[in-house]
Amino acid sequence: MNIDLNVIWFLLVGVLLTGYAMLDGFDLGVGALHLLTRTDEERRTMINAIGPVWDGNEVWLVTGGGALFAAFPMVYATVFSGFYLALVLLLVGLIFRAVAIEFRSKQEHAWWRQMWDVSFSASSILSSLLLGAALGNIAWGVPLDAHYEFAGTFLGLLHPYPLLVGVTTLALFMMHGSIYMVLKTEGAMHNKVRGWVNNAIIFFIICYALTTFTTLLYVPHMTETIKAHPIFFLLPVLNMLAIANIPREIYHGRDLRAFLSSCASMAALMALFGVGLFPNIVFSRPNPANSLTLYNAASSQKTLGIMLIIACIGVPLVLAYTASIYWVFRGRVRLDAHSY
Amino acid sequence: MDVLTLGRLQFAWTISFHYIFPPLTIGLGLILVVMEGMYLKTRSPVYHAMTRFWVRVFGLIFAIGVASGIVMEFQFGTNWAAYSRYVGDVFGSALAAEGIFAFFLESGFLAILLFGWDRVSPRMHFFSTVMVSLGSIFSALWIIVANSWQQTPAGFHIVQTAVGTRAEVTDFWQVVFNPSTVDRLSHVLVAAFQTGAFLVISVSAFYLLKKRHTDFAKASMKIALVVAIVASLLQLVTGDTSARLVARYQPAKLAAYEGIFPAAEPRAPLSLFGWVNESGQKVDFSVALPGMLSWLVYGDASKPVTGLDAFKPEDRPPVNIVFQTYHAMVGIGMALILISVLGVFFWWRKTLFEKGWFLKILVVAVVLPELANQLGWVSAEVGRQPWIVYGLLRTKDALSPVVTAGETLASLILFTFVYILLFALFIYLLDQKIKKGPVDADVIGEGHRA
Fold first, then answer.
1. Which residue of A has its CA nearest to B66?
2. Which residue among A66, A103, A325 places its CB closest to the CB of B425?
3. Is there a contact between A69 and B169 if contact means CB atoms under 8 Å apart?
4. A308 lies within 8 A of chain B by CB
């Protein structure tokens, strides 16, 4: 395999989506866990823990979409038009979520806050499920015709495998979000949240094991590269170690390390997904000849080169100020006059 | 309705709704830089209160802008897949660049603007305000690059691929600085500055009428009026160059702007208003200045302007809607100049803050730039029809082949419902923020680690 511009862009889009999973993953997870809290103060703590960063996190999805459009326009066009209704639902879910975060604490009425709390949690859960189900469909393969157009139906996208990946994604985000909340809370709430982490890990491990077995049994093309190049077995091993490390770090009270461990397991999972897919981006099932690959779906070499320059200038800047903003807002949540 | 009409309706609806907000954040962002800069320079509590208050309003507008903006990033793929395949090589780069250079900058530093008062020094806070304002301007830059390329494509060639033709970049800088980018960007940015300024003017006028927060309102009004008059007069210049550019590169659009039908009309008139009679090929009820259009375009009143008859019927935009929206935009532009000049005149006569009738006009004037923005975009985009990329790809050939009319109708209904809800909430919360006004904590500069 040569490392050419197409491979670099396959990796870069992967990096953007991994960044999205690590960042928006925790705030979607916090949303999914939101209704486990009872008092208004706890709920405000949940929302304010992600308050300063959630919209920045969503920018990773927007930029991932933009990068996909620029680097692999065929994929952008085929997947988004093919997954039409699912994507519209995701967009509506994300809008509702943004609105719920923004508006929840603007009124004192209990019914008002309860309404937005439910919206916030439901839209977070829906968005996580849909994102996971989309990945699941890409992994399973989607029917494409000779023009690389989607040849399936909306209901065809909802078969068990993508739904399982959807639930696994939700579990992953809940685990990630619960660890994030451990970092952001203190006192009684902190102890309560600590209890969530172990349950979330168990939930995730069950889903993950199911997904792995199903993939091995029913989605053989996702494991071919790994079988051909055993070095990639390191990825699932790394993933298991990272997950196993989370309860250990939590037990020792090293919460930040637990969070980083969770990030590492996400990166390993995304890498596994990428390795399985390579060199396809959208695997065509039942007719693999119609698959969109990182060559037949890509923009011209010229554009990929220009975009690489843009990425080399832009990405370090983005990482620098993302890091500084997380640094500025480090530490536990304290509710004050500027809070949601 | 067919899928083309529904797809266009959905795009028009989602983009129009979204575009209520970006001009406000771009304009208000600039004004915030001025306000907070004044605070750092003078340390006067009133500037501190202003920055605090307007940052809160900015945050609300920004949130709705983000929520409605995500849809735009994906809609090219969902509904316009053929377009996305055709232009992805060129157009996708601009969208990706917008994400990397603009959105991260805006959303990241906005966190400090809204929540960082007690966490960073006043200088760092000011720096963040500057970055947010820059981010919003960069975002305008890249999206105007993308849209201008649709109007005046450059720096590309057409390549045959396995599944059809597509445009590929040959010269990136020609794509970025295609013939219309600079003029259209300046026109859009100046309009955004007007929009932000008139929001501040409107709220300040409201406080003055109610005799609340009067020092705060007077100081806000002064800054905004300066921005408003400079921007409104500048808009004459950018509007003029933009129109001449349209005459040169998109003559069918210019002919629709003014309802010119003869293939080459010498002494082409400029209508002040009218109603285009398409079957009769003339403009009814019009008051027109003969030769004025020729003079504005070529500096020579006798030089002929290309009319719609020079184009095959299938290559012409719908005329009346372009004519009406364009004229309404220009009319509003003139009204904004009049209002700004009067405002500055009364300010100079020291009567501005007592003139009740004029303050009442100022309160409602905020809808004028918003309307002009929408009307201007309608005339620019409908005037480009039947092309989605001028001269290259027709709108009817740009749809997603796999998306049905039923699906589009379902999503359109969903977006309509969600956006109406969103807008009602926005107005309600904005109203609450304005009624609450600047609070004491804003004035004394509490919490600054200075």
1. A55
2. A103
3. no
4. no
Helix/strand/coil (H/E/C) assignment for every residue in B91-145: HHHHHHHHHHHHHHHHHHHHHHHHHCCCCCCHHHHHHHHHHHHHHHHHHHHHHHH
Residues of chain B with pLDDT under 70: 440-450
* Domain range list for chain A: 5-328
Which residue type does B276 have? V
Instruction: Report chain B residues whose CB lies below 8 A from the CB of A92.
Output: 414-415, 418
pLDDT tens per residue, range B341-362 = 999 999 998 888 888 899 999 9
- State mean pLDDT over A49-62: 86
Helix (H, G, I), strand (E, B) or coil at B370: helix
Cβ pair B209, B357 in contact under 8 A: no
Rg (CA), chain B: 23
Minimum Cα–Cα distance from A81: chain B residue: B78
Does A247 contact chain B (CB < 8 Å)?
A: no
Among the listed residues A312, A92, A143, A202, the one whose alpha carbon sits nearest the alpha carbon of residue B416 = A92
Residue B299 Ramachandran class (φ > 0 left, ψ -120 to 50 alpha, else beta): left
Instruction: With beta carbons less than 8 A apart as the criterion, state whether B389 and B148 touch.
Output: no
Find which of B15, B95, B165 to mutate to test the A interface (most A CBs within 10 Å of its CB).
B95
pTM of the model: 0.91
In which element (H, E) is residue A281 found?
A: strand A280-282
Check CB contact under 8 Å for A310 and B96: yes
What is the rounded distance in angstroms from the CA atom of residue B253 to the CA atom of residue A202? 63
A14 in reach of chain B (CB within 8 A): no
Bridge partners, B168 (sequence order): B157
